[in-house]
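Aim 2, interim progress. The first record below pairs a target sequence with its structure tokens.
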Amino acid sequence: MDGILIAILTHNRLRDTLSCLESVRRLEGPVEAIVVLDSGSTDGTPEAVRRLFPEIQVRELGANWGYAAGNNLALRMALEQGMRGVFLLNHDTLVDSRCLVAMLETARSAPQVGAVGPLVWAWPPSQGIWALGGEIHWRRAYTIHRDAGQVEPSRRSPHPVDFVPGCGILLLREALEAVGGFDERYFMYWEETDWCQRARRAGFSIWVDPRAQMWHKAPLSSDDLPPATLYYMTRNRLLFFWEHSPSLGRWLALAHAVHGAVRLARQLEQMERPSHAQAVWEGLHDFFYQRWGAWGDGKEERWPASSG
């Protein structure tokens, strides 16, 4: 089957979810099915989607499973139904009608493609570009979204990148069968970067296609992130670079990541934002005590396996 499953994971974002579905409804290309994965919303999202979009499937998860586990359900659905791939979308996105068609053209024309992402614009569009794929800086242990804040993309043709942001990513069947789904230890943030790195190590390439376009209603600045985001970004950054850094550079990367987290926590304390600082300290603590999954679950697993 050449069809694509479109999956939108949502949690208490009724208005954004309905806007996203309106844009998805206009997608051109081989859309085989659309599913909304609702993570325990209490704002009436499942009922509204069923009423306004009766052709769209709704799967109620009953709780917030996080990005990794929630979207893994969609990946399993696509594989079981024999689909060619899955286009994962955040609920706070809008897609251009030609987005999927362009990405599939890239998937067909480039060698051994595991995933394709679009050019992501900020919202409102006057803010410029949100991301044109991403780059990993191994020595200093950080990543960047390419072209963020720029008014025009630096490249106009499809090209390989290190990773594609998870707000909009097309994952292809061959790579999913070889690599598996998202690592649920991450819960949310960094899991798509981890997946792309595992796919690249398995011989697949990751591409971004500027002809495919979408919009993401997320801030460009990270100056006012909530405590939960700071926690996951801190813990999961450490996990990612410990797992994936080249063996000779693993400890250096870890040192840079720890230093950055400590400096951030102290800055937040000086700014009298104790809950934000505490989230960073807990992210550090939980990495070293191997506590994964949702913040506060108390899940403990073994030290991350070496992958260098």
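The second target in this work package is listed in the same format:
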Amino acid sequence: MSTVWTVALKLGVNHIRLLVQMTNKQQPHSIPAFAVAAFDNKRAALAIADYLSVQGISAETKSQDNETLVIVFNESQVPDARKIVESFIANPNDPKFLNASWQRNQTAAVDYQADNSALVSALKSTGWLTISLLVVIATLHLLMHLGAANTIWQALHFPYQLTQISLIELYRLWTPALLHADAPHLVFNLFWWWWLGKRIEANQSRWRLLNVTLLTGVLAHVCQYWVTGPNFVGLSGVVYGLFAYVWLYGRFSRLSDYQIPNGLAGLMVLWLAIGFSDVLWVSMANWAHLAGLLTGLALAFIDGYSLPKQTKSP
């Protein structure tokens, strides 16, 4: 038998109703197995899922029938998860729930009020590393068009002679990713950086995003250098690496944020092939794209293969 609580919370000037439904067994065609709560408000569900994860209970949220479910994957952890939900109902503003969101690198404060716009919601769900790099790249591009192009290029370009690079200039192996030749190139890369980066930062950690970004960038640039020389710019090698990482890691894990359609993945590979065919009117760093993609796949395989069994896709 299920028990239903309806809780009215007053936060500031707004009244928000949270509907929490607890189940002892799977309900056919409604709540899936191991669903421990259903909320009218997505932010509340995210707060619970974050806190459960910090407590070592593998959990995620799922939208269903105008509600957001909180689901755990280990049946033996269901009783503990239910106790935590009851604690949340008793005191939803307890700082421990907000702190859990920060520990999982969720930059959005646990806000139980409805978002005013899709833009606000998108920004709240984006981690500070994702936002910071986006702002840095956009700012550098603006400064280059305001007369600082030569200064910025001299500071950040790939080494002209890789074998003679000094330790103090190792940063140049990655920094060409900060530079872009034109506005379409910039917008395309920044969109994909934001779309992919925020998923890794929110679902794994900002450090994992940083590691994947640095490794894919360095290997992509070194590969491009050995084939064509040092004159290249752009975040595209990193973007291909992040795309490959999210796509393959999503095949290993249960993370809904990582489920990229195979058709979209095929489109990215097709674009890579078109670049190598040399039929486009622009010059593309194709070897950087390929090396970034392969590096992302390798990192995703390593991370995905080492996942605990209960968090892997069946």
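The chain has two domains: 3-115, 128-311. This observation will shape the mutagenesis plan for the next reporting period.
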